Amino acid sequence: MSNPSQERESSIGLLPFPHYRLSRLQEKHGRRPVLATFNLVNGAVSIALISTLALITQEALIFPSLGATAFILFYVPLAEPASPRNTLIGHLTGAIAGFLSLAIFGLLDAPSAVANGVDGARVGAAALSLGACGGLMILLHSPHPPAGATALIVSLGLMPHPGQLPILIAGVVLLVVQAFIMNRLAGIPYPLWRSR
């Protein structure tokens, strides 16, 4: 009698070499070392690819909150916050909340908090951006915790121009595509859009 989860696993994914599936590797080497190695390799490869594209294009495709996103996408890929839907909507929400907060506090053309220090307007923008991001993600049923860092990155003036939004989202899309491919190759039924 076959195991239903093994049947489901064998029918899902792109992996031509079943002995590289995470479940098989975990049986042989243990869960923790395999997950640690999977996260190490995929986190490094993901960020290296996006950073290389940023270097080639000279666009800000890479930003700090992608590191936390990469960790979630490879450590708990089937969790709702790791789904492509939540990842994309979350970062978009964070960026928009950040830009709106900059506009509300008159900081669209101001130097970043790193260059100029923090003042009352910057405190207000940072607080509003994070609060708005969290509230909107809940209302949109799309929690993705690293998006809070995206809201702060924008509201602290590290990516202060609305024209950077498509570039920021392109970095997120690249990471999600890479996560989809690598998770599926590992035999993990990473969703196309939304977690089940």
Entry summary:
This is HPP family protein. The chain is an all-alpha fold and 196 residues long.
Describe the structure.
- The chain is mainly α and 196 residues long.
- It has one domain.
- Helix content is 66%, strand content 0%.
- The two termini are 26 Å apart.
Index terms:
membrane, single chain, HPP, mainly alpha, HPP family protein, 196 residues
Fold blueprint:
Blueprint: H1 4-11, H2 22-29, H3 31-57, H4 65-75, H5 84-104, H6 113-116, H7 120-139, H8 146-155, H9 165-185
Helix pairs in contact: 2-3, 3-4, 3-9, 4-8, 4-9, 5-7, 5-8, 5-9, 7-8
Tell me the β content: under 5%
Main sheet overview = none
| Class by SSE composition | mainly alpha
Portion in helices:
55-70%
Tertiary shape: elongated
Whole-number tally of structural domains: 1
Low-confidence stretches: 1-17
Distance between the termini: 26 Å
**Quaternary structure annotation:** single chain
Order of helices and strands: HHHHHHHHH
Total of DSSP H or I helical runs spanning 4+ residues = 9
Determine the mean pLDDT. Answer: 90
Transmembrane segments: 34-54, 60-76, 88-108, 165-186
Keywords: Membrane, Transmembrane, Transmembrane helix
InterPro entries: HPP (IPR007065), TM_HPP (IPR058581)
Organism: Halovibrio salipaludis
